[in-house]
Fold this protein.
Amino acid sequence: MQLAGILEPLEVKGLEFKNRIVMPPMYTGLATSEGAVTEELLEHYVQRSRALGLIIIEHSFVVREGRLGQRQLGCDNDSSITGLERLSSSIHASGVPVVLQINHAGRSADPNITGSQPVGPSPNGTVRELKVDEIKKIVRRFAEGAERAMRAGFDGAEIHGAHGFLLNQFLSPLTNHRTDQYGGSLENRIRFPLEVVEEVRAKVGGRLLLYRLGSDDLDPQGIHIKQSQKFAVKLEEAGIDIIDVSGGLCGSRPPELQDVQGYFVPQAQKIKEVVEVPVIGVGGIEDPEYADELILEGKVDLVAVGRSLFKDSEWAKKAIQKLRGR
Ligand SMILES: Cc1cc2nc3c(=O)[nH]c(=O)nc-3n(C[C@H](O)[C@H](O)[C@H](O)COP(=O)(O)O)c2cc1C
């Protein structure tokens, strides 16, 4: 069977991606201090959108207490919808599907911005442990954030479960020391993320639902790929359409992996072994030929190119020209 390269389209849930190049979510700091879309933010995405298969818009906070950046995008209230609608329609004008990443930073939230004490699965320094009723409330906030994105015309949502933010803090034994139904076994530690998936799925309906999976903490005591594979199977069962594989508590750009192109691709490959849904691979990808090989060799289904697109808004266009010219 002829395997597809990055120039080949991919259809997911009736939505066509014209190629396999994905812009992963990347915080720009271009929203207003209230979290609304600005002209600069709009321009940033429109410039980069044209040649892509899919755009995932940067992490937007679902509730004020889960905020991280001073000018982080938000979807925590209905006044965000008008700006988000302009963002989705501007990207759609280029014929590219767009999803919004939704997030709660948990214990990484910045109290100087939120004005409240950070919360997490377990107490730690200034971090307060979430009570069960608060967990349920946050599940609803994620669902409401996703619903706003749908009302704003997005093609779907991506739940941020990586890089040491709240859902990832529940997954990892390094940060989750609870003894109730949300801590202890893997089954318990994935309960909160799966509850979020279930409620968000209900709001997203037939549109796309992605999960950014913190697949590896790069710590012997932390999350490693065997556990992530089990979680990925559960995510698929819960109705996730695409698994976007990245790092866990080690973050998205661990210094020890920085000199390798495709540094989280091995983890994505392992996830791909256990699920049927498409998998996104990421990590320091710069060369179009390398990205193309990842698809041709069947290692991943989609390739996310972050900083290369940040640096050069024409990266995808040039990559396509180069590959077509071979
Ligand atoms: C400036 C910047 C902001 C980022 N913001 C986010 C974010 O909002 N959500 C997220 O899941 N990852 C975020 N990331 C991680 C990227 O999505 C990506 O996984 C990482 O940069 C590795 O890919 P790359 O080497 O192609 O850049 C960010 C990365 C950078 C450089």
Notes: Residues 24-27, 58-59, 101, 160, 162-163, 212, 246, 252-253, 282-285, 305-308 surround flavin mononucleotide (CB under 6 Å). Residues 10-324 form a domain with the TIM Barrel fold (CATH 3.20.20.70). The longest strand covers residues 54-61. Residues 37 and 83 are 5 Å apart (CA to CA).
